[in-house]
Design goal:
heterodimer; A: 4-stranded antiparallel beta sheet; 9 helices; B: alpha/beta; 10-stranded mixed beta sheet; 34% strand
């Protein structure tokens, strides 16, 4: 589904990703771990198409398409979803209205019929039930005055509603207490599907106790330096990122 | 009496180079009309120019009584002694008032709605103002002013049964002279300001509404103004009176065809609310704004004022201003009655080379008077948007309260937003609050929307719509929908 090959990315003149390669198949959950400044958020932003990220080399192929050639909204319609680390507030825009506009814009782009209010509300209720969420957030403006936990829950709700094929979670666990973390993880687990791939970007291992990944990759200094199964995350937790740096040095020597 | 002027303004005076084409008001006499959407109707116009004879002629053609003619002449002589105001933050080419025709009306004067020229009705249809069936379905009574003359008022009979008068100003002068004499100019006196004086001298038509004691008007009343003929100014005059315990909601919409000349629109609106009366006045103004280089467009100089004359009376202004090359407008409330309240909700958008200097005045005179101001300014392109507001609390205004919220949204890098809040408080116990914000549509907001599948233009519309929500919710439903669409159209090409 996703093939990232030797990706180099500059941000404000500084090279952040330096030859990152990664492959993910439908149905797989990949965790991307790494220290601060390794380029984790850059990876998420580049995949979603944020401006200001200059790809200097490498390629990203998504379902056979050149993902980097698409506008952000085209990527969304093609099934790419980024759950933001810091979701923005859009004052005055009703959350339900926003979601319906987003879903219908994607459906339109894909040549599918748009949903009317009744069909949409039915879908909303279904998803709320699956995620065990209440609808209180839906009546408010998009993220306006939401707590950190509410913002992240809202991201997961959008994920559930938009049903992407490739979901990228950018440090969705940051700033969450344990209850909120579990709630978010339950939501993600409910969305796991043979047709859907996840990239779970995180700094800490604790999220992976709840969202158990198929693969764990360590991102350091703009590259994937180590890949393994879920036990890799535990090793990291035990030894810290310095352990990876040490192994890298040993390897280089 | 509050007059349409603000003090301490010299510091905001500014003269920018005049965009090419603005001198067109002077020299446009022989110019070919831009296609756009001009209705081909024979009209009868006075030649351009203004003097005492023109004022008399307007009055004569309208068959007005002598007292009305004298009233106009008094205004005209007052106007001659005045100079155009310069304190607004607007760059305007000098206007040649002798190049404007002060009167234009469709040639075949209709006697009833059924006799109205079908082409005229078609125009209103195009504008979405159906005079006949659709109006009935919508339950809105419409008085449509085309150029200078009111062309028909729907629902007249239904309203008359409740004692409500809703007719053109010309008819009111003929049929309800005692009401007109009592109230006309009682809120905006003839010499109030330069444009109000001009309007008082030459106004041609407008709407008149009278809601008798204790009556709640059962439907929204609405006027549609349209400037059609070239080189004409439109000077409508509206007067709304709500007697004790009466209430009414009034809507006004405005359009004009595209022309490469600047046309003058100088209206006066007076509202009078007696004890326990309430008046809600909503405007969607979409006069032709000129093209992206600032050629053409309406010069909109409007004096709107409401007088909360009675105790516990209430006046609420809501305006959505997306059109006009120049907007100069400060709908105000004089809170004379004890416990009276005034509200002002405004969305003003300037795109391309549009300039708006708009806001409100809340004059607290009575005790326990309250006012609320919510102003949302949106600037895009090279648009310049100024909020100018005055909150004045007089000595006797025990317990006066005001809350002002004034937000500006910038789209792009070449536009401007300016805020001039004037506060004059003469009572030590008054509570006056002012909040102001200026923000840009952020890259983060746009990216967030786009990453969810919403295209850039739709995302901008959505963010702007959210920004204006507090004002839109004050508009009647069908107007809110129209206002939202107008903003979308007006912002086309604002990003990317």
């Amino acid at each position: 589904m996703l093939k990232i090959d030797n990706l180099h990315v500059r941000v404000a003149g500084k090279e952040i990703l330096k030859g990152l390669s990664l492959e993910a198949k439908a149905g797989e959950v990949h965790a991307i771990m790494g220290p601060n400044g390794a380029g984790k958020s850059t990876l998420g932003n580049v995949l979603a198409g944020r401006e200001g990220y200059e790809v200097t080399a490498g390629s990203v192929t998504y379902n056979g398409q050149d993902l980097l050639a698409l506008e952000p909204e085209e990527r969304a319609a093609a099934g790419v979803f980024l759950a933001f680390q810091y979701p923005v507030e859009i004052p005055g825009v009703n959350n339900t209205y926003f979601l319906r506009a987003a879903l219908n814009a994607q459906r339109k782009q894909r040549g599918e019929a748009e949903l009317d209010s009744m069909q949409f509300l039915k879908l909303v209720r279904e998803k709320l039930a699956v995620l065990h969420l209440k609808d209180e957030l839906l009546h408010r403006a998009v993220n306006e005055g939401f707590s950190g936990g509410e913002k992240k829950r809202n991201e997961i709700f959008q994920l559930a509603l938009l049903e992407p094929k490739l979901a990228i979670l950018d440090e969705t666990d940051s700033g969450l207490d344990i209850d909120a973390l579990k709630m978010v993880a339950d939501g993600v687990n409910a969305m796991r599907d043979p047709a859907r791939a996840f990239l779970v970007i995180t700094h800490y291992q604790r999220l992976l106790d709840y969202i158990v990944p198929d693969f764990v990759h360590v991102l350091a200094d703009g590259r994937i330096v180590e890949s393994g199964d879920k036990t890799l995350a535990h090793k990291l937790e035990e030894h810290g990122y310095a352990w990876i740096a040490g192994r890298k040095l040993a390897g280089a020597a | 009496m509050a007059t349409e002027s603000f003090q301490i303004e010299n510091d905001v005076r500014e003269r920018a180079p005049v965009p090419a084409g603005n001198t067109a008001v002077e020299a446009a006499l022989n110019r070919r009309y831009e296609a756009g959407f001009v209705t081909d109707i024979e009209s009868e116009s006075l030649p351009p120019g203004l003097d005492e004879d023109v004022v008399r002629e307007i009055s004569a053609r309208k068959g007005e009584p002598e007292w009305m003619t004298q009233w106009r002449l008094q205004a005209y002589h007052h106007w001659l002694t005045m100079a155009p105001p310069h304190w607004a933050k607007l760059a305007i080419a000098p206007i040649d008032f002798q190049a404007i025709s002060y009167f234009s009306r469709p040639k075949n004067q209709p006697k009833s709605l059924d006799e109205v020229d079908p082409k005229l009705l078609e125009t209103y249809d195009k504008l979405g103002v159906p005079l006949h069936e659709r109006a009935k379905l919508a339950g809105v009574a419409v008085d449509a002013v085309f150029d200078s003359v009111s062309v028909g008022t729907t629902f007249r009979k239904e309203l008359a049964e409740k004692g409500i008068v809703f007719c053109s100003m010309s008819e009111a002068i003929r049929e309800h002279p005692e009401l007109v004499r009592q109230y006309l100019g009682s809120v905006v006196p003839v010499g109030d300001n330069y444009f109000a004086a001009l309007n008082s001298a030459v106004f041609s038509d407008g709407s008149f509404v009278f809601i008798p004691k204790g009556v709640r008007c059962p439907m929204e009343l609405s006027t549609y103004f349209r400037i059609n003929a070239g080189h004409t100014g439109q000077f409508e005059r509206t007067l709304i009176i709500a007697e004790a315990g009466a209430s009414v909601s009034y809507l006004e919409g405005c359009t004009a065809p595209m022309r490469d000349e600047n046309q003058l629109h100088a209206a006066v609106v007076e509202l009078v609310a007696l004890d326990d009366a309430s008046i809600k006045y909503s405007t969607v103004q979409n006069w032709y704004p000129g093209d992206e280089n600032g050629v053409g467009g309406i010069y909109n100089f409007v004096t709107k004022r409401g007088d909360c004359r009675g105790a516990r009376s209430k006046i609420s202004w809501t305006q959505v201003e997306t059109g006009s090359a120049i907007t100069w407008k400060y709908p105000s409330c004089v809170l004379r009655g004890d416990d009276s309240s005034g509200e002002f909700y405004s969305v003003a958008l300037t795109h391309h080379r549009q300039q708006a200097d708009t806001g409100t005045k809340m004059i607290h005179i009575g005790r326990n008077t309250k006012s609320k101001i919510v102003s949302k300014g949106i600037s895009a392109g090279r648009g310049q948007n100024t909020y100018r507001g005055l909150v004045k609390v007089e000595k006797g205004a025990d317990g006066a309260r005001n809350h002002t919220q004034c937000d500006s949204l910038l789209i792009g890098k070449q536009c401007g937003a300016h805020t001039f809040p004037y506060i004059e408080v003469k009572h030590p116990g008054a509570i006056v609050e002012h909040e102001a914000t200026t923000s840009k549509i952020s890259e983060d907001q746009l990216f967030y929307c786009r990453s969810r599948g919403i295209g850039e233009e739709d995302a901008v519309s959505m963010i702007v719509d959210g920004f204006c929500k507090q004002v839109f919710k004050e508009l009647p439903m069908e107007f809110a929908v129209e206002a939202k669409k107008l903003l979308e159209v007006s912002l086309e090409g604002a990003v990317g």
